[in-house]
Amino acid sequence: MTDLPARASVMTSFYRISALFLGVAWPLWLVLLAARIGVDGITGDWYTTTTFLLFLLAEVLVLAAAAVGHPGFLVFALRFCGAVLVIALLLLIIDPGAVNAQGPLGLWFAGMTGAPAVAVAVTVSRPVAGGFFLVTLGSAALIDTLAAGHRDAVDIIANVGFALVNSFFFVAVATTMRQVIYVVDANRTATDQARQQAEKLRVRRVDLDARTRRFHTEVLDALGQVARGVRPTPVDADAGPDRSTSSPGPVPSAAAPAGASLHHVTGFNRVFSWPYLLVLAVVLGARMWSRVGADAAGIVTWVLLCGALALLCTRTWGAPRRRRAALVATMLCTAVVVGLWQGTGHHVMHWEYNAAALVAALLVTCGRQKEAMVGLAAGIGLIAVIRQLDLSPDRHITGADMAVSSLIVIVALLLRLIVEYFVRQLPEAQEECRQAGRELEDAAAQVTAREDRLELLASMADPVLDAAARVPEISPALARRADLTRLQFNDMVTTPRLAVPALREAVWDARARGVTVELVDEGEAADVAVGAGSGTADDLTDRLGDFLRTVDSAGPGSVVMLRLPPRQPPG
């Protein structure tokens, strides 16, 4: 027998899809951020050139690993993305002034630090991923804020806080999905092991059936010889019972991640929770205050976005109702339009674009992609129309600004597809594991029943054959016992459903009195109970009393036939 082929690890598939995910999403930010400083800016100083090449190298490695598909290479490439971010931050120790080499723009790559954090999160445990996320993204955002000349506490809270909350749900879902994939792999591994063991037990069962038939024939011949007063031919020891010494091992049970629902399985319980959304509301408030101050348009915009976040807070897996999703989309669209009338303050780009894009990304992650896209498209379209009608307070604000900020929505859409793909595999893997466990239990029970029956047959025949081999001459009593044993031995093999202890003893006694007893089992081979020979079959329960009375009342010379009909199908 050859072992069943092992299936590819689901974790490897997860790494590969994650690498493709980063390979598609990360270059978008890299190109946009590099465009801010231009080619001259990239090549203008050693720090920008070095860090740009490091990030480019990480991108190439990720794409190469996704193409090759080797698990070790995938893990190395994903972790290398995080290592590049750490190296880029540590290089500032050599020359702290390099951060402002392009002028007071801040850290040029601060806007894409979430991608390396997600890359690391899919390959490490949750505590390690959380620590890496907080340290690297927090440090990059803080350096960016200070380098841009913002020293006010509100500015720091706004920039650092938004950088963290903006990437938190990606990291949270990535770490939890890694646990889900681990559980899927554990279920599939247990399934494969159970099937391997069940296949070995099925081979063992076929071997036991063949040995039982051979043993049956040889023992019947030997007992027949003793019954005729002839010394028996020794029975081949290899045909006798040989209980398997290899245990089938524990029957696998379907593994499950901690958490009672798919809402917990995916990590959405932490993203769509009041603590996270309250922190996000506070950060957005600080961001609004630091950008434009507390004017009426800014406050209304903030209230609309916070209301949309509150509507997204749910306790169950799956998409919110269509009306709620449509209301969220309407609120984010209204927020970006109202935000046009804020003061520009000392920041060029409006905070509400990033905030609305994040709300839309959360809506996409919930499974309401259509509503999110319609809300964003409506917002971008209204901004363009207002500008075209000369109603905009600032002609420099265009729908393109909103479109650029909405790249996170594309990332959220890809994330949603990945989550759905792997979450669908979890119940399938669990049910497959449970089914394999049932098959293993059944195969083990069948082998045990056959081994028990073979041992029982041997225990019936061995004393008689051993006695016949030791005496110089077969006595009439021994010959009679051999004949009775031969008949009972044959009953045990041909009618196992009737081989219950009480009926076996009654038939023995009747035959000893000279009664001819014939046992007939009309059931198919599949009707034989797994534990036949050691207990009462269901079909025999109602007939056992009548059978015993018939056998016990039969006199010498009479013929008794006990017939057990086929097992009735369950009604």
TrEMBL record:
Keyword Transmembrane: yes
Organism domain of life: Bacteria
Transmembrane segments: 14-34, 46-66, 73-94, 106-124, 131-150, 156-174, 271-290, 296-313, 325-342, 402-419
Keyword presence, Membrane: yes
Keyword annotations of the record: Membrane, Transmembrane, Transmembrane helix
Coiled coil: none
Region (Disordered): 231-256
Compositional bias (Low complexity): 246-256
Protein name as catalogued: Uncharacterized protein
Organism: Corynebacterium terpenotabidum Y-11
